[in-house]
Amino acid sequence: MPRAQKTWMITGASRGLGYSFAKAALEAGDEVIATARNVASLSSLAQYGKDRLVVLPLDVTAKDTIVPTAEAALAAFGKIDVLVNNAGYGLDGALEENTEAEVRHQMEVNFFGVIWLMQAILPSMRERKSGHIVQISSVAGVGGFPSLGMYCASKWALEGLSEGMAGELAPFGVKMTIIQPGAFRTDWAGDQSMIRSERMEPYEFLTPQRERMRTMSGQAGDPERAAQALLQICDMEEPPLRIVFGDAATKNAIAITEARLANWKTWQAMGSATDFPELETA
Fold this sequence. Notes:
- By secondary structure, the protein is α/β, with parallel strands linked by helices.
- It has 8 helices and 9 strands.
- The protein has a single domain, classed as Rossmann fold (3-Layer(aba) Sandwich).
- A 7-stranded parallel sheet has the order 3-2-1-4-6-7-9, sandwiched between helices.
- Helix 1 (16-27) packs across helix 6 (223-234), helix 2 packs parallel to helix 3 (100-128) and helix 3 runs parallel beside helix 4.
């Protein structure tokens, strides 16, 4: 049986995973609304399906533009089957190095912008009793990593919100999937994409890790294969709530979770003892 055509809205589609997602959807015969702050690079997507592509400018931090953009997206093809919240970036810096402006902007892009766009799109999915929200999180949404604390915080916030939403949306036939990518060959850690806080001498011990992040262009993760996996997930009747993309990231996520379980078990007696004692019966 041939797959049903879908209409996608993808944020942050100008490069990296977002571009690969849009390209794969167009190549599969789907309709795509591709958004980005700078839409110039999106014109190259037209070669994969010009009549099925709509390009819209969108800065997810400009809240007053999100509803009009969502309305234009819905008007383009009459519906949105899959909303991919991909827009986001990393902030490299220890907490003492992060400025207030850096912290607020990290949360505005990676968390609050996602909220406002979902609030604009969800009513149409709820009324149609159909739809799929895909959140592009990170393996940093599973564990915390030094010098990426604020980035981790933004993804943990996104994951908690999304898991709660899954139960809210299920009665309306709307699905939720959280993608947790590891290191992919994108510009995520490049100087044009990642924000780096001004360094402080006490945190120089983080320098080797920070330098490793700059070389992520040689990582194993293939954006094209990630896009094909996403197409498969969005064709499933029962898609996963969470899935890690990348073999190393999957192993890392399992190790982090196993360590967390071991910690809870180690301290279970002390934690359980904080309940009220059972009342003695006469």
